[in-house]
Write a structure and sequence with these properties.
alpha/beta, about 20% strand
């Protein structure tokens, strides 16, 4: 009899859209992508996430913690996170939140302390997304398009480490 592995979906909404990652273990990346929205409206974003839930059928959803001291997201992103929580509960899935500090703590064991170093560490373990690692960002540069994918993967890996 095989062991049930919950499907864990990490979602990382940002100003462009959102990144997501679906995993069953810290070493089993099923799907990961950054999605941009032509219309950045709240309803368009929620509709895309509802479609994603219907397709991927997650058992657990992992989000960044909008109540953490380090949270820097806009009020719009906070509203999106709150709506994702409602959607998740309506589907009888569990929701977990992790702060930036918690993610950094997990990746500190790999000497990865900033977002770029964390993305590089993740890419070392998942060869099929290595080409998506954004270049190291300078202060004046916008965040790379695919960084939200790595943020979502980092959230899911943090979930697995915290549950261990």
């Amino acid at each position: 009899m095989s062991e049930f592995l919950p499907k864990v979906l990490g979602l990382f909404p940002n100003t462009r859209g959102f990144g997501y990652a679906l995993m069953e273990s810290p070493s089993d990346l099923i799907a990961a992508k950054s999605t941009s929205l032509k219309s950045p409206s709240l309803e368009d974003c929620i509709q895309r996430i509802e479609d994603l839930f219907a397709l991927l059928k997650p058992d657990i959803v992992v989000l960044r913690d909008p109540k953490a001291r380090s949270y820097t997201g806009s009020s719009r992103i906070t509203r999106i996170i709150n709506r994702i929580v409602q959607l998740t509960k309506n589907r009888n899935a569990k929701v977990y939140f992790y702060s930036r500090e918690q993610v950094r703590l997990v990746f500190a064991h790999h000497n990865a302390l900033n977002k770029h170093e964390i993305a590089c560490t993740i890419a070392e373990n998942f060869k099929d997304i290595q080409a998506k690692v954004p270049e190291k960002r300078k202060l004046w540069m916008p965040e790379g398009y695919h960084m939200s994918t790595f943020d979502a993967i980092a959230l899911v890996i943090t979930y697995f480490h915290m549950m261990d």
